[in-house]
Design brief:
CATH class: Alpha Beta
Strand order of the largest sheet: 1-2-4-3-5-6-7
CATH architecture: 3-Layer(aba) Sandwich
Largest sheet: 7 strands, mixed
Number of strands: 7
CATH superfamily: Cobalamin-binding domain
Strand content: 15-25%
Protein backbone atom coordinates (compact mmCIF):
# COMPACT_ATOMS: atom_id res chain seq x y z
CA UNK A 1 0.00 0.00 0.00
CA UNK A 2 1.19 3.54 -0.65
CA UNK A 3 0.49 6.48 1.62
CA UNK A 4 -0.84 9.74 0.28
CA UNK A 5 -3.27 11.63 2.48
CA UNK A 6 -2.50 14.02 5.29
CA UNK A 7 -5.10 14.80 7.87
CA UNK A 8 -4.82 17.32 10.63
CA UNK A 9 -6.20 16.73 14.10
CA UNK A 10 -6.49 19.33 16.79
CA UNK A 11 -5.71 18.12 20.27
CA UNK A 12 -6.14 19.70 23.67
CA UNK A 13 -2.87 21.58 24.04
CA UNK A 14 -1.38 21.52 20.57
CA UNK A 15 -1.76 20.79 16.93
CA UNK A 16 -0.46 17.40 15.90
CA UNK A 17 -0.27 16.31 12.31
CA UNK A 18 -1.38 12.77 11.62
CA UNK A 19 -0.05 11.26 8.46
CA UNK A 20 -2.30 8.34 7.60
CA UNK A 21 -1.86 5.56 5.09
CA UNK A 22 -3.97 5.49 1.92
CA UNK A 23 -3.82 3.67 -1.39
CA UNK A 24 -2.54 5.90 -4.19
CA UNK A 25 0.76 7.74 -4.59
CA UNK A 26 0.98 11.48 -3.87
CA UNK A 27 0.50 13.85 -6.78
CA UNK A 28 3.18 16.32 -7.72
CA UNK A 29 5.67 15.01 -5.16
CA UNK A 30 8.66 13.77 -7.11
CA UNK A 31 10.84 13.24 -4.02
CA UNK A 32 8.34 10.93 -2.34
CA UNK A 33 8.75 8.25 -4.99
CA UNK A 34 12.29 7.41 -3.90
CA UNK A 35 11.10 6.82 -0.32
CA UNK A 36 7.99 4.83 -1.17
CA UNK A 37 8.38 1.19 -0.32
CA UNK A 38 5.72 -1.49 -0.08
CA UNK A 39 5.00 -2.86 3.36
CA UNK A 40 4.46 -6.57 3.79
CA UNK A 41 0.91 -7.53 4.80
CA UNK A 42 0.34 -7.00 8.50
CA UNK A 43 -2.52 -6.96 10.96
CA UNK A 44 -1.85 -3.42 12.11
CA UNK A 45 -0.19 -0.47 10.44
CA UNK A 46 2.71 0.45 12.74
CA UNK A 47 2.35 3.82 14.49
CA UNK A 48 5.38 6.03 14.99
CA UNK A 49 5.45 9.18 17.11
CA UNK A 50 8.00 11.62 15.67
CA UNK A 51 9.00 13.94 18.50
CA UNK A 52 11.06 17.09 18.94
CA UNK A 53 12.04 17.03 22.60
CA UNK A 54 13.46 19.95 24.56
CA UNK A 55 14.25 23.41 23.27
CA UNK A 56 15.41 22.26 19.83
CA UNK A 57 13.56 24.41 17.30
CA UNK A 58 14.87 22.84 14.10
CA UNK A 59 12.16 20.57 12.73
CA UNK A 60 12.78 20.32 9.00
CA UNK A 61 14.50 16.94 9.35
CA UNK A 62 11.73 15.62 11.60
CA UNK A 63 9.13 16.64 9.03
CA UNK A 64 11.11 14.97 6.22
CA UNK A 65 11.35 11.79 8.29
CA UNK A 66 7.64 11.93 9.16
CA UNK A 67 6.68 12.28 5.52
CA UNK A 68 9.04 9.52 4.42
CA UNK A 69 7.61 7.17 7.03
CA UNK A 70 4.10 8.07 5.95
CA UNK A 71 5.02 7.41 2.32
CA UNK A 72 6.44 4.04 3.37
CA UNK A 73 3.05 3.06 4.81
CA UNK A 74 3.46 3.84 8.49
CA UNK A 75 1.02 5.90 10.51
CA UNK A 76 2.91 8.91 11.84
CA UNK A 77 2.00 11.27 14.66
CA UNK A 78 4.20 14.38 14.69
CA UNK A 79 4.24 16.08 18.10
CA UNK A 80 5.49 19.49 17.02
CA UNK A 81 8.31 21.47 18.58
CA UNK A 82 9.55 21.81 22.13
CA UNK A 83 7.88 18.86 23.82
CA UNK A 84 8.80 17.55 27.23
CA UNK A 85 9.69 13.88 27.65
CA UNK A 86 6.45 13.52 29.65
CA UNK A 87 4.43 14.95 26.74
CA UNK A 88 6.03 12.59 24.26
CA UNK A 89 5.43 9.49 26.36
CA UNK A 90 1.83 10.52 27.05
CA UNK A 91 1.17 11.06 23.34
CA UNK A 92 2.75 7.69 22.50
CA UNK A 93 0.62 5.89 25.09
CA UNK A 94 -2.58 7.66 24.00
CA UNK A 95 -1.90 6.90 20.34
CA UNK A 96 -0.94 3.25 21.01
CA UNK A 97 2.37 3.89 19.27
CA UNK A 98 4.87 1.19 18.38
CA UNK A 99 7.88 3.51 18.23
CA UNK A 100 8.90 6.93 19.49
CA UNK A 101 11.33 8.53 17.04
CA UNK A 102 13.14 11.39 18.76
CA UNK A 103 14.73 14.01 16.54
CA UNK A 104 17.29 16.07 18.42
CA UNK A 105 19.85 18.56 17.22
CA UNK A 106 20.41 20.54 20.43
CA UNK A 107 23.02 18.30 22.03
CA UNK A 108 20.72 17.38 24.92
CA UNK A 109 20.28 13.78 23.76
CA UNK A 110 22.10 12.29 26.78
CA UNK A 111 19.63 14.02 29.09
CA UNK A 112 16.32 13.91 27.21
CA UNK A 113 16.39 10.46 25.58
CA UNK A 114 17.18 8.62 28.86
CA UNK A 115 14.36 10.63 30.48
CA UNK A 116 11.93 9.32 27.84
CA UNK A 117 13.14 5.76 28.52
CA UNK A 118 12.74 6.29 32.27
CA UNK A 119 9.18 7.61 31.93
CA UNK A 120 8.24 4.70 29.64
CA UNK A 121 9.48 2.33 32.34
CA UNK A 122 7.60 4.21 35.09
CA UNK A 123 4.37 4.02 33.09
CA UNK A 124 4.86 0.33 32.28
CA UNK A 125 5.06 1.15 28.56
CA UNK A 126 8.42 -0.37 27.72
CA UNK A 127 6.80 -2.14 24.77
CA UNK A 128 7.02 1.24 22.97
CA UNK A 129 10.41 1.22 21.29
CA UNK A 130 12.62 4.32 21.11
CA UNK A 131 14.88 5.43 18.28
CA UNK A 132 16.80 8.70 17.95
CA UNK A 133 18.18 10.79 15.14
CA UNK A 134 20.16 13.97 14.79
CA UNK A 135 23.58 15.24 15.73
CA UNK A 136 24.55 12.46 18.11
CA UNK A 137 28.26 11.55 18.38
CA UNK A 138 29.17 7.87 17.91
CA UNK A 139 30.20 7.42 21.56
CA UNK A 140 26.88 8.83 22.72
CA UNK A 141 25.03 6.68 20.18
CA UNK A 142 26.64 3.56 21.67
CA UNK A 143 25.71 4.71 25.19
CA UNK A 144 22.10 5.36 24.13
CA UNK A 145 21.88 1.87 22.58
CA UNK A 146 23.16 0.36 25.83
CA UNK A 147 20.36 2.23 27.65
CA UNK A 148 17.74 0.64 25.38
CA UNK A 149 17.46 2.88 22.31
CA UNK A 150 16.89 0.54 19.37
CA UNK A 151 18.52 2.70 16.69
CA UNK A 152 20.47 5.94 16.34
CA UNK A 153 20.50 7.71 12.98
CA UNK A 154 22.99 10.52 12.28
CA UNK A 155 22.57 13.21 9.62
CA UNK A 156 23.01 11.73 6.16
CA UNK A 157 21.27 8.44 6.92
CA UNK A 158 19.49 7.31 3.76
CA UNK A 159 15.72 7.23 4.10
CA UNK A 160 15.59 3.77 2.52
CA UNK A 161 18.04 2.42 5.10
CA UNK A 162 16.14 4.14 7.91
CA UNK A 163 12.80 2.65 6.83
CA UNK A 164 14.34 -0.81 6.36
CA UNK A 165 15.88 -0.62 9.83
CA UNK A 166 12.56 0.33 11.41
CA UNK A 167 10.92 -2.66 9.72
CA UNK A 168 13.71 -4.89 11.04
CA UNK A 169 13.30 -3.51 14.57
CA UNK A 170 9.53 -4.09 14.48
CA UNK A 171 9.97 -7.60 13.05
CA UNK A 172 12.43 -8.48 15.84
CA UNK A 173 10.00 -7.16 18.43
CA UNK A 174 7.13 -9.12 16.92
CA UNK A 175 9.18 -12.35 16.81
CA UNK A 176 10.23 -11.85 20.43
CA UNK A 177 6.60 -11.45 21.56
CA UNK A 178 5.51 -14.60 19.69
CA UNK A 179 7.99 -16.77 21.58
Amino acid sequence: MFATRDSVRLCCASVRIRFAAATSPPRGDSTASRWRVQLPPMDKIPRIVVAKVGLDGHDRGAKVVARALRDAGFEVIYTGLRRTPEDVVQIAIQEDADIIAISILSGAHMTLVPKVLEILKQRDAEDILVIAGGTIPDDDADALKQMGVKGVYPPGTLIEDFVADIRRILAERDQATVR
